[in-house]
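Researcher: Here's a chain I'd like modeled. Treat it as a single chain, no partners, no ligands.
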Amino acid sequence: MAEWVLNAHRTDPSDEIEKYSELYQKILSYAKEMGFENLITFDKNLDGYYATFEYEESGHMKYIEEFEDDVFWEALPHRLAVRDLVSQVGEKGYTEMEFEERATKLVELEAFYYEELEVNGIDNLRFENLSKSDTPDLH
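Model: Modeled as a single isolated chain. Structure tokens:
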């Protein structure tokens, strides 16, 4: 699951995470020794250990999906609050605002969005600058 968080969004390899990838490969290298050869296999062509279909279908993704869902619902109110506060006071006003004042205003705005999202989910979210012709027609 940690490997998923580290790499699922990447399109190119990163030197920054190489040490974590090496650790992941090291852990997977012990799968057979630990009785999990049905879940992890070594691919000679790719020179690495990879999850088998059985592992991929084992249900571990539900935990990742729960995490992603939680992150979304926690991050959305904060990002909307920052957007609105910057809109109200300007970028300069936001960055120069005293920490305590900024935090207080953000908490107030976040509370508004938490309540709205709890009641209506994303049903009331709209993009003001988009017309119907801007969105893809899925019919």
